[in-house]
Amino acid sequence: MDISFDLLINAIVAGLLLGGFYAAVTAGISISFGMLDIVNIAHPGFVILGSYLAYYINIHFGLDPILVSILMLPVFYALGCLIYQVYHLSFEKRGQDALRGLAFFFGLLFVTEVSLILVFGVDYRYVEASYIGPSLHIGFVDLPLRMLVPCIAALILFAAIELFITRTFIGRAIMAVSQDQLALQLQAADPIKIKRIAFGLSIAVAAVAGALLIIIQPVEPSVGREYIGRVFAICVLGGLGSMPGTLIAAMLLGVVESLTATFYGPSWAPAVAFGFLLLTLAFRPAGLLGR
Amino acid sequence: MSPLLHVDNISKRFGGFVALDGVTLEVAPGERLGLIGPNGSGKSTFVNCISGTLQNEVGSVRFDNQVMDGLAAHQRTHRGLARSFQLPRPFHSMTLADNLRIPLLYTVHARQGALRTTAELETRCHELLDMVGLLAKAKQMPRDLTQVEMRKLELARAMAAEPKLLIADEAMAGLSHSEVEDILTLLFQLNERGIGIILIEHIMSAVMKFSQRLAVLVSGKKIADGKPEEVVRNPEVVRAYIGE
Amino acid sequence: MTRVNTANFSLIMVAIGVVITLIAHAIGVDYLYFASYTILQFIVLATAWNILGGYCGYVNFGSAAFFALGAYSSVFIHKVFPLPVPLLIVIGAIVSGVVGLGMGYLTLRLRGSFFAIATLALAVVLQTLVVNWDFVGGSRGAYIIRPEYLEVGSFKIPYIEYLFILMLALAIIALVTARTIERSQLGFGFATIRDDELAAEACGVPTLKLKLIATALSGAFMGMAGAPFPYYIGYLQPQSAFGLEYAVNSIAMPMIGGTTSWVGPLVGAVLLGTAQQYATVTISSAVNLLIVGLMLVAFVIIAPNGLVGLVQERLRRKRS
Question: For domain B5-90+163-242, which CATH number applies: 3.30.413.10, 3.20.20.150, 3.40.50.300, 3.65.10.10?
């Protein structure tokens, strides 16, 4: 195969941009799975929900999707808190085996997807914004703005979360609750409230990621399920709960997927994540920077 | 006589935290060893590494002249190394009698190869329950038990595996004086049959009464190992317990 | 409840099966065969799921993957050298069983949640593979021409009746297997894994080996359910083989019916399956799936032990 250098570089660049976005999608899971040990497989469902909401408001009110996502933050945060309450009362408190919790989230994922199909149908939806279409050209490297803008927004989001977790009181309380719940209680902080805040945060982040997603690509309800493999592959490869690891793993996955799509065809892309997941689980389950 | 258990310089870390740091310990066949140490000193990690629930990164564990490293917990139980859990972990969907059938079916049978009939199994379960005073509750579920009774069930389940060495991990915490005596009597009975016992406890009176030898773990290191009367007079041991 | 031993139970089930076959034959309406086939298929899938999910506590979200593997094995073989359907069922079992085993080996040594996630990812990946594989039709789909009749010598029945009988036999085998496991030492070991895996290991239960057995069995039965599917449906597309309804129903039926015994998946499959047959015809199939999803969430929160659990609670309260 005659690999054109141009094509290779552009594929890598596209992969990096995509990877930045993947990191934002995974950030929410890093919190709920990595820190709270809640296997929220419905997370991609909320991402897609965010996408559709952004689409709806964009089409009917003409608002920029990134702006919409910021407006959606409190709504999805509240939704996340509500879901955590239900989860906590039904499962964590009762000490149920993991099966029920997993089934609960699967049910949520499923209901979300089917509801979207009922309301919007299975056609692809996309948004309109001034930066979708034009590209930045640096030499022979193409930087499509529809990928560059979300990537930058995603990295800003990612950095904001990292700062929040490490610098604010609540953020550090979240880290503490993941390590030692009893110690936290002794310091007069309510671990349940902390976990609720964290989970609400993870869902709010999901919504923002969703708005970014629909800028990058058209969306239809089943896209969420493709992201499950990606998100967890990144989490595992990056080492659970490690933010820097998540970023590196996300970039890596983005690049490999982009190269696969460019040279073997885009229909193979979903399989890449799973391949990553399997290889990581088989050879280095603690991840690249794992503990 | 070669030691029944030979733990050679094992270390275990969790991320940056060193739970065990080069611990070496021996237990002779049929010996009664007491193991004490402040909370967080690594006693539970130690038990987990010996029993196979966790794998130590450094050092090796030899039991009955066989290398245990790399073996899963169930394989070590088959070879005669049994442990009870500090926080009782009963099988909550089964009756007490059934809880005891599990080690009988999966360990004792696996060893001898000869299957007992259902009736023989049931007799044995009742025998074991009787030893810990739970025979009356044989058909009840673990959720109907008091904390104390769950501890006893935990011990009975470890005994059911017919081990050569039994590790009793804080089986007496929270028990009344007479209950502590009951458990001690039970452990002495087991020991008389030749079963080695590692008693991990905070109740010093029980430890002193029971142990032929006493070892002390502090911050993942073994700081003392010898005759109980001497060990408790060791200044380092005293300091560890009273604090700085 | 009186203890019926396995041999007697099998005889009773076979007898029931024969009776059902004769009644169906007497009625002889094609639609009945088509509808019943679907319900029987769900009985197999729900029972298969429950062996790993209900008995061991390990959730498989990718039932569609194992089902589709069975279906596509049949398509593959049909294009190479057509074999009789019972043989295809065996092959479907082997293929799905081996894949289940392989995936289990990679993921079961780690946390339980990793296995669940891996099964979800597996479904996506297998669908990607199939969509890209033209030999089995790719995204365009594959046609399998279903003969109209099964003729063996002078014995002749409509082909759909033949498929119905095969699936009925499969359902009986699945139910008998599940019940046998439940009452055996193996089932006992499965329960310890579900209750407390760490304690199980300490008691000498070889948990990895048992989990692998459960995964292989569960996958195999799902593959068996999928093997006749291309013949049943005539035109197989990835979207239908990997369809949403298999993923959610395999979980919803045992969880709504009850996961601790073989009766639960049967009850769940019959009730939900019949309701869905009715709903799909009267309302849309998407609304139908939505209702199933909502019921799953509701039951998981309110009645974690399913319908069978509710009945058992009632009986226990009446006794005391």
Answer: 3.40.50.300
Q: A190 in helix, strand or coil?
A: coil
Contact B103 C203 (CB under 8 A): yes
Bridge pairing between strands B66-67 and A135-138: unpaired
Beta-carbon separation of A274 and C124 below 8 A: yes
ipTM associated with this complex: 0.90
pLDDT 10s per residue in chain A (291 long)?
Answer: 556 788 888 888 889 988 988 988 888 888 888 778 788 889 999 999 999 999 999 888 888 888 888 898 999 999 999 999 999 888 876 666 677 888 899 899 989 999 999 899 888 888 877 777 778 788 777 788 888 888 888 888 888 888 888 888 888 888 777 776 666 666 666 778 888 999 999 999 999 999 999 888 889 888 888 788 788 888 878 876 677 888 888 999 999 888 888 888 877 877 787 777 777 777 766 665 544
Say if CB C212 and CB C104 are below 8 A apart.
yes
The alpha carbon of B196 is separated from its chain's Cα centroid by a whole number of angstroms, namely 10
Torsion of CA A163, A166, A167, A173, to 10 degrees: 130
pTM: 0.88
Q: Do A281 and C125 count as a contact with CB atoms less than 8 A apart?
A: no
One-letter amino acid of A162 = E
C204:B101 CB<8 A: no
Asked if the structure places residue C257 within a domain, the reply is no
| Residue C89 and residue C246 in contact, taking contact as beta carbons nearer than 8 Å | no
Question: Does the domain formed by A5-283 have CATH 1.10.150?
Answer: no
Closest CB from C53, C112, C124 relative to A225? C124
Which residues from C are below 8 Å from B101, CB to CB?
Answer: 188
Cβ contact A104:C301 at 8 Å = yes
Quick check: C199 and B103 CB within 8 A? no
For residue B149, which amino acid is it?
E
> Per the CB < 8 Å rule, is A270 touching C125?
yes
Beta bridge partners of B165: B81, B196
Residue C312 at interface with chain B, using a CB cutoff of 8 Å: no
CA C75 – CA C81 distance, rounded (Å): 10
Which one, of A221, A218, A239, lies nearest residue A44 by Cα?
A221
Shortest Cα distance, chain C CAs vs residue A280, angstroms: 10
Neighbours of chain B (3+ CB pairs under 8 A): C
Would an 8 Å CB–CB cutoff place C110 in contact with chain B?
Answer: no
CB contacts of C120 in chain A (<8 Å) are: 41, 225, 228-229
Tokens of A239: 């080492």
Answer whether B77 sits within 8 Å of C203, measured CB to CB: yes
In a domain, C81, yes or no: yes
- In A, which residues are within 8 Å of C59 by CB distance? 98-99, 102-103, 106
In chain C, the N- to C-terminal Cα span, in Å, equals: 16
**B89–C205: do the CB atoms touch at under 8 Å?**
no
Residues 6+ apart with CB under 8 A from A16: A151, A251, A254, A255
User: Measured between CA atoms, how close is B216 to chain C, in angstroms?
Assistant: 25
What range does the domain containing C167 cover? 6-243
Q: Do C202 and B77 touch (CB under 8 A)?
A: yes
* SS3 at position B14: strand
Closest CA to C92 of C70, C76, C77, C64: C70
Judge contact between A221 and A48, C-beta under 8 A: yes
Owner of token pair 């015809």 = C281
Q: Between residues 32 and 51 of chain C, which touch chain B (CB distance below 8 Å)?
A: none
At C254, which amino acid appears? P
Nearest to A22 by CA among A201, A171, A235: A235
Q: Let me know if residue C311 belongs to a domain.
A: no
C116 in a domain, yes or no?
A: yes
